[in-house]
Amino acid sequence: MSLEVSDLTIDLDGRRVVDGVSFAVPDGARMGLIGESGSGKSLTALAVLGLLPEGAEVSGSIRWDGTELVGLRDRDLAALRGDAIGIVFQEPQTALNPLRTVGRQIAEPLRIHQKAGRREALARAQADADRVRLPEGALRRYPHQLSGGQRQRVAIAMAIAARPRLLIADEPTTALDVTIQAEILDLLGELVDDDGMSLLFITHDLAVLSQVATDAVVLERGRVVEAAPVAQLLTAPRSPVTRALLRDATATVWRPEGRS
């Protein structure tokens, strides 16, 4: 078992935003966290890597390969980020450094975590740029010179550069149009399969989730209201929250079999 979250509670500015959340992501699994805005799904994911806002109070347990992450020194958590666990954020424009070339940013996890030399790191960065299908010459460009979809591909390349065992993707397609969204989802699925990674995918869209995850936990106001295979959520949702997510999904890009 790679990631185990047990009875996770997060208080932020005196308000409980995550309340007793538990789930596990075994090696090679594709797990989803889904819920409306404010459900606590992104905060849950950020807690895994110790990236919560200052002042957040966390209790419960987050274990990675048996090591407790709650209360772990930031220095030790930093060693996990980008190495054992990679993360792709919703908006690459804010995740990327506007003053550094794409090549330097993809190479950085290799320089930090694997002590690769500059030439080796850039060569491997080019290989990963090719894997995520960035255009020729992209490594010499700056983030503002790329499209939104290309910037997200850069963020993905950075997240997988050190070949993590777990990839966390936090609403990675929300800001993209439907065509680019589908391309990014296909790319994520391909990379996860090729590298044998586990995936923790955060979204508010059940249609999107159905493309990349096999199991999911549904959150409402910081609490788990349903946990089931994605196929079951699509065909026999139990909670009102999941049924509402399903209605929204059928209004976007997914259609249950037999419906028009």
From TrEMBL:
Species of provenance: Microbacterium imperiale
Compartments, record wording: Cell membrane
Gene Ontology terms, MF aspect: ATP binding; ATP hydrolysis activity
Keyword vocabulary terms for this entry: ATP-binding, Cell membrane, Membrane, Nucleotide-binding, Transport
Family matches, as PANTHER family: DIPEPTIDE TRANSPORT ATP-BINDING PROTEIN DPPD, OLIGOPEPTIDE TRANSPORT ATP-BINDING PROTEIN APPD
Name listed for the protein in its UniProt record: ABC transporter domain-containing protein
Membrane topology: Peripheral membrane protein
InterPro entries: AAA+_ATPase, ABC_Ni/Peptide_Import, ABC_transporter-like_ATP-bd, ABC_transporter-like_CS, P-loop_NTPase
Family label: Belongs to the ABC transporter superfamily.
Superkingdom of source: Bacteria
Domain ABC transporter stretches: 3-246
PROSITE patterns in UniProt: ABC_TRANSPORTER_1, ABC_TRANSPORTER_2
Primary localisation category: membrane
Assigned GO CC terms: plasma membrane
One Pfam match: ABC_tran
CDD domains: ABC_NikE_OppD_transporters
KW Membrane (keyword) present: yes
